[in-house]
Design a protein that fits this description.
The complex is a heterotrimer. Chain A is an alpha/beta fold. Chain A is 36% helix and 23% strand. Chain A folds into three domains: 191 residues, FAD/NAD(P)-binding domain (3-Layer(bba) Sandwich), CATH 3.50.50.60; 146 residues, FAD/NAD(P)-binding domain, CATH 3.50.50; 84 residues, BFD-like [2Fe-2S]-binding domain (Arc Repressor Mutant, subunit A, Orthogonal Bundle), CATH 1.10.10.1100. In chain A, the strands form six sheets. In chain A, strands 1, 2, 3, 4, 5, 6 and 19 form a seven-stranded mixed beta sheet that branches. In chain A, strands 8-15-9-10-11 form a five-stranded parallel beta sheet. In chain A, strands 12-13-14 form a three-stranded antiparallel beta sheet, with no helix packed on it. The longest helix of chain A is centred in the last third of the chain and has 29 residues. Chain A is globular and about 65 Å long. The mean pLDDT of chain A is 92. Chain B is of the alpha/beta class. Chain B has two domains: 171 residues, FAD/NAD(P)-binding domain (3-Layer(bba) Sandwich); 164 residues, 2-Layer Sandwich (D-Amino Acid Oxidase, Chain A, domain 2). An eight-stranded mixed beta sheet of chain B has the order 6-7-5-15-16-17-14-18, with helices on both faces. Chain B has a six-stranded mixed beta sheet with strand order 9-3-2-13-20-19. The radius of gyration of chain B is 21 Å and the shape is globular. Chain B starts with a strand and ends in a 10-residue tail after the last helix. The relative contact order of chain B is 0.19. Chain C has a single domain, classed as Ubiquitin-like (UB roll), CATH 3.10.20.440. Chain C is built from two helices and eight strands. In chain C, the strands form two sheets. A five-stranded mixed beta sheet of chain C has the order 2-1-7-5-6. A three-stranded mixed beta sheet of chain C has the order 4-3-8, with no helix packed on it. The chains are: A alpha/beta, B alpha/beta, C mainly beta. Chains A and C meet through strand 8 and helix 4 of A and helix 2 and strand 4 of C. Strand 22 of chain A pairs antiparallel with strand 18 of chain B.
Chain lengths: 467, 401, 92
């Protein structure tokens, strides 16, 4: 088994930045990425020949620079592509499932330190019909559009969050027909945070944002603030939806429903960090009440409660690629201090500027998140027929029956209904199940999360057998 | 705590065993309060497979006990107003080589003599019934009456039925102490929420039975024996019913004369193939045995050995995804038989220590405890299941393996 | 040169065009196909998260079920079919 000083899981902006810095300091680095190319969700497709609808010249510039710098240290960084990490054990062996045309390969590597930079994923609040084909996550539709695929002609963007703007801009550039943007936030909410946002933006973020907004304005796309999608319908795919006005808590206002004919819906309430690897490592996590998600506990050195395990990027707090790049650098340098490739004094001086920039990015991100966070009232949109666990087709009604039978906690619901037992292991249903149980029982209890188990991602028996 | 309830019987432990006891007692018009410290079926019953087998039991008492229990399932499954996922597709013990086959034939004959619906399959027949078995498997032993169900569903169904007939269920309520009267007879159970006045207590607390036993000064030799499980994704059927490897049983019964063709890791972790297809259209792979206290985490080394053993018998699964692993703790006794008996403490009964057979034995356990308490003749002799059988021998203090 | 970058895959017996570098899911969506699988209750599902975590996009690819088409590159001649999970039952 090959041994490295440092294994970096996830080659998005944070992971790439970390690899570059660690390699520059002389550490041996393994950079592990599940996609066929590095770059993550933002820069992942910059170098392929498929149509690149990325209009943002700031993103382009930063992305190119980053990927070029990675190229320049390729001799010192072992990059594992199409490689999915399914468990981490024995402080630390990283189990890798490497796919590819020659079949599944099993690789394990040993690493002294870990940097986990696996990014974020879509936040959801279920609504009736959200599982219909033609309803895409905002991130998912964005990725498709950037690669030249627009799977619809009457596209409706719903939910909340800054990713909506990015998606809209990419769709416009691709010549797609956007029929509307539906945002649960109100202009007053945005204005209230406006000062916070403006004072913490940096130049490129501001420019990007303005760029997106102007493009959308130019197209005269109907925008429905303070609205949320309450239902989707169609015989085998989405054909129409109903949107409803919501109050400041997200609660739907009866009588304000309107139907919109559509063939493609983007749906999501921003992003939340992916914590499955840090949880499997046994790191402490806390629930951030303001942001409404679980996050791994971190020191200023980007280190978790497990010594030698660091985290960088959106998988800790969702804050965009600029912040991720800074965090990757900090985590790498701190890991290198522990590995002995640099000392405290040099590290502190190297990182001073990054830490300063990061503080602003985080304040901006927090303000942005507070606008995008789905209000508790949105749960009132969920009808009895709404599927809550997509994988096992568990509906709201099923959960109600289980509660009526005496179930009062997440694991009890899971045992009775199979909620959370499917392929995604509770990634989506787990986001709302606590709140739903509290609403039904009227008893707010301790927030529960599904126990992290091996494997963190599905892995073939043959791969486990050979690990 | 001045608040007080009263019952004829307090059953401690809301797993399948406690649920079955509550069910049978309630049907006999006994006033039962079931006390469970967590949620119903949140202990071992929530971390196991749904086996109702006779194929892997020792010929004689073990087999007879399990068969009696097994025979109760079809009717209970119908009567319970709850879908417990009961199917009776039979089981297969896969025989790896000719040496095993000789033993299998003898074993089969003994079980057949007890009236069990068993038969030996040769290498062609075994592949006709299970086409995905590895080509070098020399045969198997089929048992028609074996079945499986959803163990948590069984617990919920039994509890639900008992509740409807008047049993009280107190979940999320731990037992803190048990008080006896001046004659040493059970008098009162102290729980977190309130006291319960009752002359009879049934200790169905599984791996925590010793803790409950201590409350009345009884030494109950049950220790947790960890077993890990692998869960597959939903996919096309690989085996249509329960399949286990025969070789494991040989190691279990022949006591060291026979060693299977396994890796040192498999031997160390007590790994033996158990393949269980479920009604959810996926399958569970077991099994392993380790004494690690109350640790329910899984280890890559153990899981790896289990995956290897499973692929040896079903090569096709190497491309099927594992979506989860988990571990359960079997309540193990030194002679592999459960404790289902009264004790020297008047009014105190023990119904625990079923090791890996708890689901299958839950119904007969419930029935026998009900018979004991109501003074009815027992379905089968209770002597091999007495707690006192352990007290004849000096019990050594436990050490973690 | 356009020819080298495109090829054909087979979806439920029909030929569908794909570009080099596209995933199977992308080829299907570009071709207007959105129903990737049916659940065990026969409910149609399709592409959702696009990043390999939801498993909604799983289809049978070259005979192997449960393949995430959003993470799998399309290759010339690969055979893809809708995964009908109500058919994944063992005989009674």
């Amino acid at each position: 088994m090959k041994a490295f000083d440092l294994a970096i899981i996830g080659a998005g902006p944070a992971g790439i930045s970390a690899a570059i810095e660690a390699a520059a300091l002389g550490a041996s680095v393994a950079l592990i990425e599940e996609n066929p190319v590095p770059g993550g969700k933002v820069f992942g497709h910059m170098n392929d020949h498929l149509k690149d609808a990325m209009p943002d010249r700031f993103e382009k510039r930063i992305g190119s620079q980053l990927l070029q710098r990675l190229d320049s240290v390729m001799d010192r960084v072992s990059v594992f592509l199409e490689s999915e990490v399914w468990t981490v054990w024995d402080q630390w062996i990283v189990a890798i499932h490497q796919k590819g045309t020659s079949g599944d390969q099993v690789r394990s590597i040993r690493a002294g330190k870990l940097i986990i930079s696996i990014g974020a994923f879509e936040r959801i609040v279920p609504f009736q019909g959200w599982t219909l084909p033609g309803i895409f996550s905002v991130g998912g539709l964005n990725s498709l559009t950037k690669r030249g695929i627009v799977p619809g002609e009457k596209i409706l963007i719903t939910g909340s969050g800054p990713l909506q703007l990015v998606l809209a801009h990419h769709l416009i550039n691709a010549g797609a027909g956007i029929i509307g943007m539906v945002n649960a936030a109100s202009p007053q909410d945005i204005a209230a945070r406006g000062l916070q946002l403006l004072s913490n933006m940096n130049g490129s973020v501001l420019a990007s944002g303005v760029n997106h907004l102007f493009a959308i304005k130019r197209q005269r796309i109907p925008t429905y603030f303070s609205h949320a999608i309450s239902m989707a319908d169609g015989s085998h795919q989405v054909e129409r939806v109903v949107i409803v006005r919501v109050d400041r808590t997200g609660r739907p206002i009866k009588g304000t429903e309107r139907e919109i004919v559509t063939d493609c819906v983007a749906y999501g309430y921003g992003l939340i960090p992916s914590c499955e690897v840090t949880r499997l490592c046994g790191c402490n996590h806390i629930f951030d009440d303001q942001l409404g998600y679980w996050k791994v506990q971190l020191s200023e050195k980007m280190e978790t409660s497990k010594a030698g395990v660091f985290v960088a990027g959106d998988c800790r707090l969702v804050k965009g690629y600029s912040a991720a790049i800074e965090e990757g650098k900090i985590a790498a340098v701190e890991a290198c201090v522990q590995l002995g490739y640099t000392n405290r004094k040099t590290a502190d001086s190297m990182l001073r500027a990054s830490r300063r920039r990061l503080r602003r990015f985080k304040r901006f991100a927090r303000a942005m998140e507070c606008i995008s966070r789905p209000g508790p009232g949105l749960l009132d949109i969920i009808s009895d027929d709404t599927v809550i666990c997509r994988c096992e087709e568990v509906t709201m009604k099923d959960i109600r029956s289980a509660v009526a039978e005496g179930a009062g906690d997440v694991n009890d619901i899971k045992r009775r209904t199979r909620l959370g037992m499917g392929h995604c292991q509770g990634r989506f249903c787990g986001q709302v199940i606590n709140e739903l149980i509290w609403k039904m029982t009227g008893i707010p209890q301790k927030r529960e999360i599904f126990t992290a188990r091996i494997p963190v991602k599905p892995v073939p028996f043959g791969v486990l057998a050979k690990v | 705590m001045t608040v007080c309830k009263a019952a004829d019987v307090v059953v401690i432990g809301g797993g399948v065993v406690g649920a079955a006891i509550t069910y049978f007692l309630t049907r006999n018009n006994v006033q039962v309060i079931l006390v469970e410290r967590g949620a119903i079926a949140s202990g071992t019953s929530g971390r196991c497979e749904g086996d109702v087998l006779v194929c892997d039991k020792g010929p004689g008492f073990d087999t007879r006990l399990n068969k009696l229990s097994q025979d109760l399932f079809p009717q209970i499954a119908q009567e319970l107003n709850y879908d417990i996922g009961w199917t009776q597709k039979g089981s297969l013990l896969a025989v790896e080589n000719e040496e095993e086959m000789e033993v299998a034939k003898t074993f089969c004959a003994r079980l057949a003599a007890e009236g069990l619906p068993v038969r030996i399959l040769d290498r062609y027949e075994v592949r006709e019934v299970e086409p995905h078995l590895a080509k070098d498997i020399v045969g198997g032993m089929e048992t028609d009456s074996d079945g499986s169900l959803y163990p948590m569903g069984l617990a919920y169904g039994l509890v639900s039925d008992a509740k409807r007939r008047g049993a009280q269920i107190m979940s999320h309520n731990a037992v803190l102490d048990i008080k006896r009267d001046v004659n040493g007879r059970i008098a009162r159970v102290i729980t977190q929420r309130e006291d319960i006045v009752a002359p009879r207590v049934v200790n169905a607390a599984g791996i925590w039975a010793p803790v409950i036993g201590e409350m009345v000064g009884l030494d109950i030799p049950i220790r947790p024996r960890q077993g890990q499980m692998l869960v597959s994704e939903r996919t096309f059927p690989v085996a249509r019913r329960k399949v286990m490897e025969f070789g494991y049983m040989m190691a279990k019964f022949e006591d060291g004369n026979y060693t299977r063709n396994v890796t040192p890791e498999m031997e160390q972790f007590g790994v033996a193939l158990v393949f269980e297809p479920t009604e959810a259209q996926n399958f569970l792979i077991g099994s392993s045995r380790r004494f690690v206290g109350e640790d329910t985490s899984c280890n890559v080394s153990v899981l790896r050995a289990m995956a290897q053993r499973a692929i040896r018998f079903f090569p096709a699964i190497k491309d099927i995804n594992i979506i989860r692993s988990y571990a359960g703790l079997r309540p193990y006794t030194p002679d592999h038989l459960p404790i289902v008996s009264e004790t020297e403490v008047e009014g105190f009964y023990v119904a625990a220590g079923h090791e890996g057979d708890g689901i299958g034995l839950s119904l007969i356990t419930g029935k026998m405890i009900s018979q004991m308490i109501c003074g009815e003749p027992l379905s089968i002799s209770g002597d091999p299941l007495r707690l006192s059988r352990f007290q004849k021998v000096k019990i050594k203090p436990f050490r973690k393996d | 040169m356009e020819q080298e970058n495109t090829f054909e895959i087979e979806v439920n017996g029909q030929k569908v065009r794909a570009q080099r570098g596209q995933t199977i899911a992308e080829a299907l969506l570009a071709g207007g196909l959105r129903i990737f699988r049916k659940t065990r209750n026969d409910v149609p599902r399709g592409f959702y998260c696009g990043m390999g975590v939801c498993y909604e996009c799983r289809m049978i690819v070259n005979g192997i079920p449960n393949v995430r088409t959003c993470m799998t590159p399309a290759t010339p001649g690969c055979k893809v079919s809708t995964q009908n999970e109500s058919m994944m039952k063992a005989e009674a």
